[in-house]
């Protein structure tokens, strides 16, 4: 099968997000004049090491508007145990609704920025907005510099983040999710001598 996205795929559901999978989920928390907000974004990823940088993209709704207004946001990593709570925060609540309260999620304060975070997330990235980018169509992308990192103590084993302690959730296509349960280490080959 081949199709041009502009001409349609002819399938019952778009296969695009199923093809680009699995995708990490950025559970974005923000604070603005309208209050605190929490929403999941599966168009999320790390984009740089030095300094560490992340991005999330989607409709310009509460999370993006709040991040744009305040200049900060936090990315909470979603554990398998939090999947239902994360999904509850994806509902389209009226602007100003605190999804932490609506979904019964424990809230904590960030340290380096004025922003809430998911209290029991396995890890949270505190971010300052670097740039808001208009994408083609109605969606936007926010780039952020990571200025603080929380790691839950029980998720560290011998100085390393242990995925098995929380089984990170990832988005597939359609309404499907998966969880990291199996990890395989693979070192990069050494650079050839003389090149």
Automatic annotation (TrEMBL):
This is Flavin reductase family protein. It holds the Pfam family Flavin_Reduct. It comes from the Bacteria. Residues 20-163 form the Flavin reductase like domain. Gene3D superfamilies: Electron Transport, Fmn-binding Protein, Chain A (2.30.110.10). InterPro entries: Flavin_Rdtase-like_dom, Split_barrel_FMN-bd. It comes from Rhodobacter calidifons.
